[in-house]
Hints:
mainly alpha; two-stranded antiparallel sheet; 6 helices; 4% strand; elongated
Amino acid sequence: MHQTTDADRLRSALNEADFPASKDDLVRYAERAQADAETVRAIRSIPPVEYSNLTEVVRSVPLEDDRTDAERAAQRKDHTKPGVAEQEKETPSHPIVEELGENRGS
């Protein structure tokens, strides 16, 4: 199970971090900043690579899901993770089908 935090807590925990930084460096920065335990555990769960900047860290850390349904749908539509079949992705239905109950062009 991944530990989660939010982007604000993560930025606060790593605002003094010097980049590039390794995962271990980031954990130390968070501990020195007295970040909450969930944030430190979330940082510990990221891949052990060198991070060039805070944006890369934010992308790697599992964040609490506070996105809207539209944002989640857009991410599912555009996702490129290997191993998940196209038909397994949840995508919104076609607007014509939603409005008319059918798609006459297919």
